[in-house]
């Protein structure tokens, strides 16, 4: 009985402290803000997964700054709804929605073909779309969903658009990765988790692949005036937790400690526009500042091997 009373009293004190310090906690949780005054008049931006969460807020901010923003969404209706809400909050926003399903290489190829025929410049590509902790599922091409969408789909997309980015230089690529890369390993012997599957580890593997991809691509883009950096957006209260009831509950209970999607978009925006990053490439950022990369994310051997394996899996050549 006494123990129970102590626990209840303890919880009460913690709740009271959280309520009292809520404004300070919120300010701390919000993290870094992109303070760049850069205007994006005349610039074209492509953002994947732009219909919700971090992607939508990134689209809004870049549109406010005058860019033509192309929102690549797998569900056109959801995309149009988000584009309408962006137009409603920014009358001069030039936003358009195009269909792209990163879980289907035919969709990626069709998207790129139309894009290259209709859009003649691309200054900023933001590989933002992502899935987390979904039950074991395969993409149309038979890839495990996390590595398929988060890494291979974006790898193929970037390979198809890289010529346009080079022709539009100076240009930037932002790869939205995660702190979760710290807990990932590239399981070359079982990249698609056919032997054993853990949804959390599959997510971490895909986010490590994002970091390795950004580093390897940056090495290969030296001298082109196209830069590529990876980003950890922070822990953001978005739809990302949709496949995990536990995480969804956890995120709503602790929402005061989490970033809003707008706050989570700040580092992507920073990497996409900040003047001081014009020649910075192959780096990892969080809270609009350089961030730690786990040793497995710094291995040149792993990044080269992942590059080769990715080309092999997608049946493409990219050197
Ligand atoms: N939220 C967080 O705490 C963190 C997020 N991140 C990363 O940030 C990025 C954005 O996540 P966040 O905004 O939080 O999550 P959301 O779930 O809110 O947004 C994810 C976006 O990706 C899209 N998407 C998913 N699968 C596909 C697909 N097959 N083809 C095209 N688009 C697809 C979704 O479309 P639809 O709505 O139609 O499903 C949605 O637009 C992700 O890469 C995530 O890994 C990294 C660290 C922490
Ligand atoms: C432990 C802990 C937290 C939870 C962090 C979590 C659950 C992070 C999830 C990160 C994700 C989903 C990354 C995606 O790439 C809070 C609520 C921040 C604050 C209290 C301490």
List keywords for this structure.
319 residues; eight-stranded mixed β-sheet; 11 helices; globular; binds NADPH dihydro-nicotinamide-adenine-dinucleotide phosphate; binds retinal; alpha/beta
Can you tell me about this structure?
Pathway: Cofactor metabolism; retinol metabolism. InterPro entries: NAD(P)-bd_dom_sf, SDR_fam. GO terms for molecular function: all-trans-retinol dehydrogenase (NADP+) activity. Belongs to the short-chain dehydrogenases/reductases (SDR) family. This protein is of the alpha/beta class and 319 residues long. It contains 11 helices and 8 strands. It has an 8-stranded mixed beta sheet with strand order 3-2-1-4-5-6-7-8, sandwiched between helices. Helix 6 links the parallel strand 4 and strand 5. The protein is globular, with a radius of gyration of 20 Å. The mean pLDDT is 95. It binds NADPH dihydro-nicotinamide-adenine-dinucleotide phosphate (NDP) and retinal. The site of retinal has 6 residues, from loops.
Give the helix/strand layout.
Layout: H1 2-20, H2 22-30, E1 44-48, H3 53-64, E2 68-73, H4 76-89, E3 94-99, H5 105-118, E4 124-127, H6 145-167, E5 171-176, H7 199-220, E6 226-232, H8 245-253, H9 261-264, H10 266-273, E7 284-286, E8 289-290, H11 300-314
Parallel strand pairs: 1-2, 1-4, 2-3, 4-5, 5-6, 6-7
Antiparallel strand pairs: 7-8
Helix pairs in contact: 5-6, 6-7, 7-11
Bound molecules: NADPH dihydro-nicotinamide-adenine-dinucleotide phosphate and retinal.
């Amino acid at each position: 009985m006494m123990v129970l009373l102590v626990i209840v009293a303890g919880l009460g004190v913690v709740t009271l402290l959280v309520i009292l310090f809520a404004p300070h906690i919120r300010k701390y949780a919000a993290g870094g803000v992109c303070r760049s005054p850069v205007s994006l008049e005349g610039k074209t931006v492509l953002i994947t997964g732009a219909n919700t969460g971090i992607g939508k807020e990134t689209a809004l901010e870049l549109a406010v700054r005058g860019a033509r923003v192309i929102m690549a969404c797998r569900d056109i209706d959801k995309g149009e709804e988000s584009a309408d809400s962006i137009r409603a909050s920014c009358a001069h926003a030039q936003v358009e929605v195009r269909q792209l399903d990163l879980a289907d290489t035919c969709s990626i190829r069709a998207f790129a073909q139309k894009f290259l025929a209709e859009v003649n410049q691309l200054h900023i590509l933001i590989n933002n779309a992502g899935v987390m902790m979904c039950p074991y599922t395969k993409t149309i091409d038979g890839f495990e969903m996390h590595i398929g969408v988060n890494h291979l789909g974006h790898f193929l997309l970037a390979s198809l658009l890289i010529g346009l980015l080079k022709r539009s230089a100076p240009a930037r690529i932002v790869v939205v990765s995660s702190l979760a890369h710290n807990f990932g390993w590239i399981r070359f012997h079982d990249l698609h988790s056919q032997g054993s599957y853990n949804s959390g580890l599959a997510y971490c593997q895909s986010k490590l692949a994002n970091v390795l991809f950004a580093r390897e691509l940056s090495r290969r883009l030296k001298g082109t005036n196209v830069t590529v950096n990876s980003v950890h957006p922070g822990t953001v209260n978005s739809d990302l937790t949709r496949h995990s009831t536990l995480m969804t509950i956890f995120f709503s209970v602790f929402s005061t400690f989490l970033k809003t999607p707008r706050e989570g978009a700040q580092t992507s925006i920073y990497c996409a526009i900040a003047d001081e990053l014009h020649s910075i490439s192959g780096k990892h950022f969080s809270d609009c500042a350089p961030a730690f990369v786990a040793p497995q994310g710094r291995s040149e051997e792993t990044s080269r091997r992942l590059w080769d394996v990715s080309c092999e899996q997608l049946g493409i050549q990219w050197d």
